[in-house]
Amino acid sequence: MNLILELANYIGIIAFAISGSMKGIKKGMDLLGVLVLGFSTALGGGITADILLGIKPPTNLVYLPYPLTALIASFLTFLFYKIFANVGKPLLYADAIGLGAFTASGASLAYSIDPSPLLVIMIGTITAVGGGVIRDILSNEVPVILTREFYATAVIIGSGIYFLLRYEGESNYYDIIISFLITTVLRIIAMKLKWELPKVINT
C-alpha cells in the first residue's frame, strides 16, 4: 500500500477512535463502553466493507497494528478526556484526512475485487463513514451523515473519481492519491463554508 495512504489511514484511525471515545464519555459510558465505541468508530466501516466483499476474517481484526492503534487512542482519550475536549479544529482536520484515506483505500479494495462503479462507490462510502454510523447507533442517535453536513457526499464523490481514474488503465497510485486529496479537500472546504445538503423544513 502507498506509504502516504498508510500514514493517512493511521491518522484516520486515531481521529475516529478519539471521536468515538469522546461520544462514549459524553454519554456517560464506562471504560469498556468507551473502548468499544472508539474501536467501532475507527474500524467498523472497514470491517463491514470486508464482510460485504467476502474477506474473511476482516483485515481490521487480524492486522494487529490497526486494532491496537484504535484501542490505545481510545484508552488515552479516556485518561486525558479534558485535554482532548479542548482539541477542536486539529481533530476535525485529522478526521477529514482519515475520511479521505478510508475512501481511497475502500474504493481501491472494491475495484480490485470487481470493477463495478456501484460496488466501488458503495464500499468506498461504507469504509469511510460506516464507523461513524455504528458510533451514532450505539449512542442511540440518528447518524450524523443522515441529518446534516457535507460528509458522506464528499466520500461518494471521492469514490466515484477513483473509479473513473482507475477505469482508464492500471493503477499507478495516482488514482488513490487524487481520490484521497479530493475527498479530504472537499470535506475541509465544507467545514469552512458550512455546506449542507437541502432538506425539508417542517413548520
From TrEMBL:
Subcellular location: Cell membrane
PANTHER family in alphabetical order: INNER MEMBRANE PROTEIN (PTHR30506), UPF0126 INNER MEMBRANE PROTEIN YADS-RELATED (PTHR30506:SF3)
InterPro entries, A to Z: Gly_transporter (IPR005115)
Species per Swiss-Prot/TrEMBL record: Sulfurisphaera tokodaii (strain DSM 16993 / JCM 10545 / NBRC 100140 / 7) (Sulfolobus tokodaii)
Domain of life: Archaea
Keywords: Cell membrane, Membrane, Transmembrane, Transmembrane helix
TM annotation in the entry: 31-55, 61-84, 91-113, 119-138, 150-167, 173-190
The protein, known as: Glycine transporter domain-containing protein
Chain ranges of the Glycine transporter domain: 7-81, 93-166
GO cellular component: plasma membrane
Membrane-topology annotation of the record: Multi-pass membrane protein
Main location as per UniProt: membrane
Pfam family, one: Gly_transporter
